[in-house]
Specification:
The chain is an alpha+beta fold and 359 residues long. It is 29% helix and 23% strand. It contains nine helices and 14 strands. Residues 1-8 and 13-17 have low confidence and may be disordered. It comes from Candidatus Entotheonella gemina. InterPro entries: HypE, PurM-like_C_dom, PurM-like_C_sf, PurM-like_N, PurM-like_N_sf.
Length: 359
């Protein structure tokens, strides 16, 4: 507003200085619709849920729990479009198998079988494909699952980006386990299995050609062994999730909404490698929203904290596990963080896309 220009009668001049609300209605798909944040939620609720609405889908867990003639099964599906296909610590093949296993095991299920569909671009090198398929076999063997069916399609050069993989997985779910995103309760304590942001920043270090004294590596790993160790230590685990796209922040917000509870986490307790923190600072990213592919967050009863945390720390994939916060009854649907400087910050969902094609 020009200092010499008179204000328009009846109009508050400060209104011109306020920030408008972010646009949320679009006629086309944006990268932000794949972020795992607020736009992803809008796409889900505006397009997919109205079309496919049913009680099994309505739970909005990472897997469907099916009762087939008295046998409980967990069933999940996922698509992988990560760029680049090969990155420090793994490749798209490791990611596809491990990600499918993790979506099953955080329900308490024993993963058994996986399907894999490949969309190949004309001109893709067969040596690269062989390496990716071999890594899928190795990841499946390590986790004790089998790839039992699949499909292959080839599209014209320029109609895809090298390779996309879609997987589905099936696991057996013991009858006594009822671990759901809607089961978090006031008083539950929040446990995180390890450092944040390793996968996302490994991908970004490749894209941006960042160099650090210690190389960044993806944390991609199958978590079924860790989950079994935790459940053997104490059965009072109410909810688990692997915080993949959208990071820990998006996962906590989703669970807070589904369970109708509030959450308070402590910034000083969040484990983050210095290299990841430095890379985030360089790129202007928040580690809370950066993808992980070998971590889980668990909501446990207070009496379960010590035995479950001990079991996590004793497992190779939980050595950096931390007790990071608690579930509260007030301000349902809201996640707050006690900051390192003594204040409180609201941890909200992302509006746009922070890291596209991260998984």
């Amino acid at each position: 507003m020009h200092p010499d220009k008179p204000a328009t009668p009846g109009i508050n001049p400060f209104h011109a200085m306020t920030c408008p609300l972010p646009i949320t209605d679009y006629d086309t798909v944006l990268l932000g619709h794949g972020s795992g944040g607020r736009l992803s939620g809008r796409l889900l609720h505006d397009v997919f849920l109205p079309a496919f609405d049913n009680p099994l889908l309505a739970s909005l867990d990472d897997q469907a729990v099916l009762d087939v003639e008295g046998t409980r099964l967990a069933f999940t599906t996922d698509a992988f479009v990560v760029d680049p296909l090969f990155f420090p610590g793994g490749n798209i093949g490791h990611l596809a198998v491990n990600g499918t296993i993790n979506d099953l095991c955080v329900s308490g299920a024993h993963p058994l079988y996986i399907s894999a569909a490949f969309i190949l671009e004309e001109g893709f090198h067969l040596d690269d494909l062989r390496q990716i398929v071999l890594s899928m076999r190795q990841a499946a063997d390590a986790a004790g699952v089998h790839v039992v069916t699949g499909d292959t399609k080839v599209v014209n050069k320029g109609c895809a980006d090298k390779l996309f993989i879609t997987t589905s997985g099936v696991g057996m779910l013991p009858g006594e386990r009822h671990i759901r995103a809607s089961n978090a309760q006031p008083g539950d304590q929040i446990l995180l299995s390890g450092t944040l942001g390793d996968h996302g920043m490994a991908i970004m270090s490749c894209r941006e050609n960042l160099e650090f004294e210690t190389s960044l590596e993806s944390d991609t790993a199958a978590l079924n062994g860790l989950v079994e160790a935790m459940l053997e230590a104490h059965p009072s685990i109410h909810c688990m999730r692997d915080p993949t796209r959208g990071g820990l922040a998006s996962t906590l917000n989703e669970i807070a909404t589904h369970s109708n509870v509030g959450m308070v986490i402590d910034e000083n307790r969040l484990p983050i490698h210095p290299e990841v923190k430095g890379a985030c600072e360089i790129l202007g990213l928040d580690p809370l929203y950066v993808a992980n592919e070998g971590k889980l967050v668990a909501f446990v009863a207070p009496e379960a904290v010590a035995p479950v945390l001990d079991a996590m720390c004793a497992h190779p994939l939980g050595q950096n596990a931390q007790h990071i916060g608690e579930v509260v009854g007030e301000q349902p649907g809201m996640v707050r963080m006690r900051t390192a400087v003594g204040g409180t910050r609201i941890v909200d969902l992302l509006m746009g896309e922070q890291l596209p094609r991260i998984c």
